[in-house]
Amino acid sequence: MTFKALHHVAIICSDYSKSKAFYTQILGLEILQEVYREERDSYKLDLAINKHYCIELFSFPNVPERPSYPEACGLRHLAFEVADIERTAIELKEKGIQVEAIKIDPYTGKKFTFFADPDNLPLELYEQ
């Protein structure tokens, strides 16, 4: 078996309008396609970074909350690669997003920090 790449990550949100605005207007991801599936009362929003399809944002009625803290089994976080973590953290803060202090990964020497989406999904900035 040989994988070529990670294709996408699927995220289920509790408030579609709020999450759509967060991922597109605050984070600046590009909308590739938006579909409303009436039979499921569900939206599916396909998002891209630099024309690369990466996130499917879903809405479903009555979704349960995701346990985050203390950390729960399952997907821990999504990480976005950035060129300048300090500048990106400032931009997020200017848009009202709380960002943790920037840390240095003791194994790679790279800078990283965390912030959260509207459903408190942990998101990471990782300077490459």
Automatic annotation (TrEMBL):
It holds the Pfam family Glyoxalase. One of its GO terms (molecular function) is metal ion binding. InterPro entries: Fosfomycin_Res_Enzymes, Glyas_Bleomycin-R_OHBP_Dase, Glyas_Fos-R_dOase_dom, VOC_core, YwkD-like_dom. It comes from the Bacteria. SUPFAM superfamilies: Glyoxalase/Bleomycin resistance protein/Dihydroxybiphenyl dioxygenase. PROSITE patterns: VOC (PS51819). CDD domains: VOC_Bs_YwkD_like (cd08352). The keyword Signal does not apply. Residues 5-128 form the VOC domain. Keywords: Metal-binding. The keyword Cell wall biogenesis/degradation does not apply. Coiled coil: none annotated. This is VOC domain-containing protein. It comes from Cellulophaga baltica 18.
